[in-house]
């Protein structure tokens, strides 16, 4: 037999693969999206697939429930085709096409955008993108004035903005003769000027005048969010977000880096984020605004260091190998054409520089947005996304670290976890008497899973009602039908929503493995905070403000976060939720050349603390893997309850 | 019927075309080279093709001899496929693969290269290419020294050559982490520095040290010639030349421009010169020298203005439409990647700037090589290539013009004409008594045709022996079997070589139409010289030196050229043959940044004279369309004979 043809329902996508190929690999090749947070190692249980036809070989996995197994459901990563097959993925039955969602910037973010703009102006940073439109009404050539087109253009520019040696791409040069003659030599020149360089991005007829657009993109490990912005006014015209299609190669940066080192891996990951995610967002936004992708003449991208490398297709392997060295912090001048972003091919691309391998440009953008660089007070900045990054400091000094929190706050590595999208339980309370839960769902639908803020509420409520002990073990002695023993996994679990309550007829539960994962995640963050403060010789009480960013969602309950020992016990008014600060920061970089300079300065001047190498960190972590903490003096208010 | 499949013998190339497509168009699409100097308009008679099988429609043409017609030979441009066909081109039965010939720079050129280098140094122009190799032995990173790769490289460069903001392509950045680690952070950085810009072309391990190579290319309308040069020493390591594959779209720039404006025309012409000609020369030269194309890190190109436009794929239409405006003189920074030249994709590309639409970078390169810019004496520079361009002047002032001489001096528009390659008759004498010719052939083989220098000798000999009168009419009353009447064309002809003397069994003859074309060509050059001198208020006798360049060949007979009135009557020692001055000039630009600056200066400062608009030019031209001239006082020496 030559190979196996796999038909994926319901999209009817077909792919031919070698015999013995896993169905997950086949799905990736077919462009069928299957979530695989663990990168296909068989331990997350998310890549469930229903076998409709065909022969296969499979490995059993504890994370696949017996009930599923009996219905012919398997894990795609552990099922290998032996013949032609017909299969149907279960978990997220969507192709990436429909992952685009409307995302109106929330009130917090809108507020922060205004605030950050004001802050920049107050510190003398001009809100000027560096992209400009210059009108040139040139004299048409004659036999006596036979200066060539390009020299005529350069001469015209010189009269408007002083002598220049402008650059332009061959594409722009090729369009020049036609544009000049098609518009009677009356044109608008779109220029990018930075560091004495002058680059012509586009030449357009002056009568067909259009605004200049730019995009800023937060390239998250899990979610990619973008704004389409009118550069001259700074107005956000469209917003959109989508799951990062790289998810099918693993939930966290480490599994992606590992995938990238295999044959074709780097190209597949680049393609997934550029073609499969960002370009679709651009398409969606330009279609809604009814403009051409070519009208977008500047792009700013912020992501963690691995995302920045994969965006450019630069090998990321050394990020994960000691001594953890990125290929670049700043990058040489690049254009959309080089990166494959389908906006104007000559649009400059700016990737917000990062601090180190595990504190990337998303954090620098966040710090830029949060204004720590301009603060007299001590600010603690927490980004609770797929990983947890922390920055602490003020105008004078800033230190940063990365906690190995994993993706728990975006629902990763939790059996019923999901990101904060429609169908996610985002708030939970539990009746202390009946032990019955009460929850709210994003979008007001039936629930499909639980997101970060919901998990924090849930764990806090289980702890406060005594369902779990400080170690996260379930008290099996309590009388509630919601507390059960899972024979498969050999652990107890708590049922949040029964089959008939959920959208897909699958129970939503949390088990002791989930709880353990979650507690380790929150412990990593808290230990990170303590360690970072130590490097500054500061105590928790020295913090004047805690700014929380990231995909954890704006419904984060601060009290509950303190109750479980994720956040330090401080007055509630000291906590602020900033939203997607990486997107806000990249927006600032889009509309202000000065902001880009400031971001570079922040990235260079911030001190990176490698937690794993820091004396005493492990003790801090172990101590924090308790609800709320082994050292109860740190949470006096919680212990009083 | 859906289409016709045309099989070209002897290469057995197959192409499917629409019914009614001309065989010339089919050959172009199939990549079969058929010479078509007239661009496929049916009047040059070069595109002869033998029909072996199939139905077709054709138009009769006077330029196709009856004997040929009876043998089933047709003109490819006037024959249209009506069914599947099998055909065999006659004229030049080669694909472009074998057009590459060894060309060792001739003695004259070698001498001029030395002379030009010395001249440049004497005027303070440094022989430095601007490309350099800098060795950096960087400290490998550690946990305490975790500067990213790119920043580490930039830092290292700064210590060696001062603070830089180097640019590099994404490709170079992608290779950086691997190159650094594969070589223990001990590397050679290949830099291009110009106008304060600093561009990293390549990063290589320091142990695998290789010379830096560059190529300079004369992109002629008919012939493309290239040198592969070791940049640091200036040594020419390889030379090669080939017919410009664009010839299949017409012999002169006007027919190429016309072709370029049709659908896909511009792309076809660009592909013909870049992929079909230059890249093959590069392949040939790198293979012979046993280096990689990527080892070539700089490329300099000189060609007429149309060639420069077509090389870049920039529309050339305005060159031919009044007021004759090129798209560019200088070009923005470009790389080999942009142009499609298959050397190192990051190699900078420099196209020698031209003066105007009909005095291009090849002439500027020629003037640079000939040293007019440094001469106290009055120099007349003639480039007798596919067109004829003239420059006259000295250190203080230079004027230039283009004669519409056509391709006669490279054998174009002459029935048995060919360029000065193997098989070309390059010298001719005629016995005044017997009227029998005596000739020499390039390569010492049987003749296939006659090249420019041979034509000059032939016409001069026919004129001096009275075979033709001053108007180029053949004296039919002379008793010689070599003088005949061609019934087809209705004109007389002179047989230079009979069927059994030639390589392909085809007679080599010259007829009165050829003679008329040739006399008009030489008339255009002489009229150009006279007009150019007028603009400088000079006489022929004010000229101290005449430098002759171009494809006419080093065997040009000066006396004969004066005898027919092509060149002004001056002492023979005032004439110098420089060879391919465009190639010499582009070589100088390759090895010297200062030479590039000088070329830019020459291009900007030279005055272009548009002959067609110059009062009195037409009278000059009409007067010069005589052997030697209507005004015999201009050629006292000739008239004495």
From TrEMBL, chains A, B:
Native organism taxonomy: Bacteria, Bacillati, Bacillota, Clostridia, Thermosediminibacterales
SUPFAM superfamilies for this protein: 2Fe-2S ferredoxin-like, Actin-like ATPase domain
Species of provenance: Thermosediminibacter litoriperuensis
Official protein name in the record: Uncharacterized 2Fe-2S/4Fe-4S cluster protein (DUF4445 family)
Residues annotated as domain 2Fe-2S ferredoxin-type: 4-93
PROSITE patterns, per database record: 2FE2S_FER_2 (PS51085)
A molecular function (GO) term: iron-sulfur cluster binding
């Amino acid at each position: 037999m030559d190979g196996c043809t796999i038909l994926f329902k319901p999209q009817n996508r077909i792919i031919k693969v070698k015999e013995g190929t896993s169905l997950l690999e086949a799905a990736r090749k077919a462009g069928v999206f299957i979530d695989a947070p663990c990168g296909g190692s068989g331990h997350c249980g998310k890549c469930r697939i229903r076998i409709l036809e065909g022969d296969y070989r499979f490995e059993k996995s504890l994370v696949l429930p017996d009930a599923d197994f009996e219905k012919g459901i398997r894990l795609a990563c552990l099922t290998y085709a032996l013949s032609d097959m017909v299969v149907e993925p279960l978990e997220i039955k969507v192709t990436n096409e429909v992952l685009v969602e409307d995302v109106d910037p929330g009130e917090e973010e809108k507020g922060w955008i205004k605030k950050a703009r004001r802050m920049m102006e107050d510190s003398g940073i001009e809100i000027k993108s560096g992209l400009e439109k210059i009108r040139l009404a040139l004299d048409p050539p004659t036999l006596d004035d036979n200066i060539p087109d390009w020299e005529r253009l350069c001469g015209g520019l010189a009269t408007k903005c002083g002598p220049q040696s402008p650059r332009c791409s061959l594409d722009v040069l090729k369009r020049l003769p036609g544009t000049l003659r098609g518009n009677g030599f009356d044109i608008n020149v779109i220029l990018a000027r930075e560091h004495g360089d002058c680059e012509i991005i586009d030449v357009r007829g002056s009568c067909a005048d259009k605004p200049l657009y730019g995009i800023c993109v937060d390239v998250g490990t899990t979610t990619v969010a973008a704004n389409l912005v009118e550069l001259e006014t700074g107005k956000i015209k469209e917003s959109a977000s989508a799951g990062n299609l790289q998810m099918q190669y693993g939930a966290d940066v480490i599994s992606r880096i590992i995938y990238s080192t295999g044959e074709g891996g780097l190209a597949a990951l680049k393609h997934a984020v550029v073609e499969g995610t960002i370009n679709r967002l651009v398409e969606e936004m330009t279609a809604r605004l009814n403009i051409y992708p070519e009208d977008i003449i500047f792009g700013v991208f912020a992501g963690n260091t691995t995302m920045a490398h994969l965006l450019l297709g630069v090998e990321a392997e050394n990020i994960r190998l000691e001594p953890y060295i990125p290929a670049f912090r700043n990058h040489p001048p690049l254009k959309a054409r080089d990166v494959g972003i389908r906006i104007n091919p000559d649009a400059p691309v700016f990737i917000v520089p990062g601090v180190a391998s595990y504190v990337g440009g998303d954090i620098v953008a966040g710090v830029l947005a949060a204004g720590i660089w301009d603060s007299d007070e001590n600010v603690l900045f927490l980004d609770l996304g797929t990983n947890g990054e922390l920055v602490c400091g003020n105008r004078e000094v800033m230190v940063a670290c990365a906690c190995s929190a994993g993706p728990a706050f975006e629902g990763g590595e939790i059996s019923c976890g999901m990101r904060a999208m429609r169908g996610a339980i985002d708030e939970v309370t539990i009746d202390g008497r009946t032990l019955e839960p009460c929850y709210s769902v994003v979008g007001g639908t039936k629930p499909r899973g639980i997101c970060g803020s919901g998990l924090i509420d849930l764990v806090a409520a289980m702890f406060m009602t005594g369902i779990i002990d400080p170690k996260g073990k379930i008290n099996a002695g309590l009388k509630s039908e919601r507390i059960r023993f899972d024979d498969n996994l050999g652990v107890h679990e708590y049922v949040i929503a029964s089959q008939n309550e959920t959208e897909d007829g699958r129970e939503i539960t949390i088990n002791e493995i989930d709880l353990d994962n979650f507690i380790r995640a929150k412990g990593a963050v808290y230990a990170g905070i303590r360690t970072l403060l130590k490097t500054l010789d500061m105590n928790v009480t020295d913090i004047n403000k805690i700014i929380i960013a990231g995909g954890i969602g704006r419904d984060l309950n601060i009290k509950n976060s303190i109750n479980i020992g994720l956040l330090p016990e401080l007055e509630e008014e000291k906590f602020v939720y900033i939203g997607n600060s990486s997107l806000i920061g990249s927006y600032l970089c889009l509309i202000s050349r000065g902001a880009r300079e400031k971001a570079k300065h922040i990235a260079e001047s911030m001190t990176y603390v490698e937690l794993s190498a820091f004396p005493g960190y492990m003790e801090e972590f172990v101590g924090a893997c308790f609800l709320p903490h082994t050292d109860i003096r740190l949470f006096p208010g919680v212990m009083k309850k």
